[in-house]
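Extended Data, record Lrp/AsnC family transcriptional regulator
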Amino acid sequence: MDNYDFNILRHLQADGRMSNLELAEKIHLSPPQTLRRVRALEEQQVIRGYSARVDREALGLGVMAYVNLSLDREQYRNVREVEKKIMTFSEIIECHTISGDFDYLLKVVANDLKGLSQFLTDKLMQVPGVGNVRSMVCMEEIKPVSSLPIMALGQQSSS
């Protein structure tokens, strides 16, 4: 990857709906060269897809929580089966394996605190192999999901 690729990524993270012509103008390449590079980044899975950032609160999802989850290895040994099951829950919008006292960190959304409680009790804690669950409710989102720091990877170039 070179500075052109880094600039493509930087601009597409800021505006994924930008036309190829607009992108080409911003990175100072011809439209065919720009399109070739974008397609190569897509094929290499550097660009994994395009999506809209939706305001969860506008959809009535007023509660976001981080949930630490540990497995009960005595009860259940097939970790991948537990992962498959928790991946089916639409309330879980992110799941990461972590080091430390817990095995997973989940980012969970719900309509309200009662909805969060019902999800944890009636769904998540009913999955065979789930041991300890500890949730932390997000009080205020200071910096929501943002772009990756592309400029830290490549030399700064003109926009």
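Summary. The chain has a mean pLDDT of 92.
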